[in-house]
């Protein structure tokens, strides 16, 4: 039995969503970075450790992917979907500590927002690229 070809959404439907998800994912990414900076530099009690050292260690994975996120690379956004799961896990662990519960919940929320928006950007970006390449056009012979 022949497999039905998937019909891609129209270019007019995809373009605004790709632009919106790129902006939303970048804002969520910057929000997560900002949350970490505010928490470790102003709020966290690190028991004598230097806050900027801890912050730098926390930000290394996010900063490695910053060029891809800023430039709108679909590959950079897809890698961000993998990396941001670490921050979700870290936030879940922090949420169990009564002293860091609010920070943990905020970190989990920010990481879920980054994950979902980056994932939707990648999905719609690849669909738009396929549509622009002429794939998915159904022609009647």
From TrEMBL:
<dbReference type="Pfam" id="PF09842">
    <property type="entry name" value="DUF2069"/>
</dbReference>
<feature type="transmembrane region" description="Helical">
    <location>
        <begin position="78"/>
        <end position="96"/>
    </location>
</feature>
<feature type="transmembrane region" description="Helical">
    <location>
        <begin position="49"/>
        <end position="71"/>
    </location>
</feature>
<protein>
    <submittedName>
        <fullName>DUF2069 domain-containing protein</fullName>
    </submittedName>
</protein>
<keyword id="KW-0472">Membrane</keyword>
<feature type="transmembrane region" description="Helical">
    <location>
        <begin position="21"/>
        <end position="43"/>
    </location>
</feature>
<keyword id="KW-0812">Transmembrane</keyword>
<feature type="transmembrane region" description="Helical">
    <location>
        <begin position="102"/>
        <end position="122"/>
    </location>
</feature>
<dbReference type="InterPro" id="IPR018643">
    <property type="entry name" value="DUF2069_membrane"/>
</dbReference>
<keyword id="KW-1133">Transmembrane helix</keyword>
